[in-house]
Fold Glucosamine-6-phosphate deaminase.
Amino acid sequence: MLLIEKKIDNLKVYVYENRKYMGKEAAKKAAEIINNAISKKGEANVIFAAAPSQTDLLEALISENVDWTKVNAFQQDEYLDLDPEHPAGFGNFLRRHIYDKLPFKSCHFLYCRPEQAEAKCQEYAELLKKIPPDMIFLGVGENGHIAFNDPQVADFNDPKDVKIVELDQVCRNQQVNDGCFESIDQVPTHALTLTLSFIMRVPQAITVVPTSLKAKAVARALHGEISEECPASILRRHASAELYLDKESAREAFNL
């Protein structure tokens, strides 16, 4: 059930009774965008977010009527210095939840060894120039990050498309809160991420944010200053972005 539909600056915001409805409606819109891209140019290029916040969306997306053999899939961020088989690795998350369940045309990964990180950033940036994305899925972190652009490394005018970042304490704690790691000492300190300047150039963005843990960040993103202090606030300037919330994540932004 849709509770609220509102536009804040450029950003369309939808609030649903629960995260199941949220995921289903976001998937429906995503399928429409993907199918339009396939219709226009024969394929669609989609960047996926890897986080527990995305599971409802991904589960619903699998059931949508899309010719996945015409979809190229990318990930937006990945830990550095994590065992390649670790289940919390974002590429592994995407394999479990969607990549291995659908016949994608291609799937592209960001994983690399730490000594390869700089080269991987350049290689991935070049790949995205050759296969420019039509749409990106995003989440919002407890500190307001999108992808791994935490406040201290966020740059709305970043000269890079892909970069190495140091994760802040709030971000690393979130990975424990999400159940991805047992303790913060297990969470990597660095990662690769698409930058905010790159994300803002992707033609369509669908952001999915459930649970009360994200309520403060959502309120800041929607009603606070547009600033790197809350990186997700920049979505209000995106040319075509939509934000899907459940009642819990929207409660502080809309007094629910």
Summary: The chain has one domain: 20-241.
